[in-house]
Amino acid sequence: MTLALALYQPDIAQNAGTLARTSACFGLSLHIIEPAGFPVGDAGFRRAGMDYLDRAAITRHASFTAFEAWRVHERRRLVLCTTRGAVAYTALAYLPDDVLLLGRESAGVPEPVHAVADARIAIPLAEGARSLNVALAGAMILGEALRQTGGFGGGLITDRPAPRA
Ligand SMILES: C[S@@+](CC[C@H](N)C(=O)[O-])C[C@H]1O[C@@H](n2cnc3c(N)ncnc32)[C@H](O)[C@@H]1O
């Protein structure tokens, strides 16, 4: 099993398309928790996802309740990425089948979703900064989770320094 990304009621098609492309590039599934603020076939979604959408494993869940039924059945942890996170994203020990949940652009996630998460993580920001773009936050957190769990693909030949010429 691999890590998975989940988007809570995403508002902006281009961000969701970017994250669909990111998921496809790392062979991960993307879970969209509806309602989204755009039709999932939206032109902006397709433009940002490009031809990677053909290989993206996207599941749409009609509600958070439906998403939770899937997740609990799969016995995966729910890791909420939130500006209100109690733990720095580099301090969490990720599991290879964690689901990384990103909140909606306009409002994050509601309190009951916050409460049900197994872990709540944040990317620490400079004093006074409110939040990152959701796709950038997802990419940073996914990078750390893949690094820790050995999830990067076979395209990486070596992580040793190149020999001197
Ligand atoms: C634009 S932000 C949401 C802003 C919203 N007002 C809030 O405070 O939750 C959209 C999503 O990106 C992710 N995100 C943005 N900045 C983050 C950070 N510094 N740490 C963790 N997640 C972040 C979270 O999943 C967040 O719900």
Provide an overview of this structure:
The chain is of the alpha/beta class. The protein has one domain (4-149): Alpha/beta knot. The protein is 32% helix and 18% strand. The chain contains five helices and seven strands, in the order βαβαβαβββαβα. It has helices at 13-25, 43-49, 64-74, 111-116, 134-149; strands at residues 4-8, 29-33, 57-61, 78-81, 87-88, 99-102, 119-122. A seven-stranded parallel beta sheet has the order 3-2-1-6-4-7-5. β1 (4-8), α1 (13-25) and β2 form a beta-alpha-beta unit. It starts with a strand and ends in a 16-residue tail after the last helix. The model has no long low-confidence stretch (mean pLDDT 94). The structure holds S-adenosylmethionine (SAM). Residues 81-83, 85, 102-103, 105, 107-108, 122-123, 125, 131-132, 134, 137 line the site of S-adenosylmethionine. Its main location: cytoplasm. Belongs to the class IV-like SAM-binding methyltransferase superfamily. RNA methyltransferase TrmH family. TrmL subfamily.
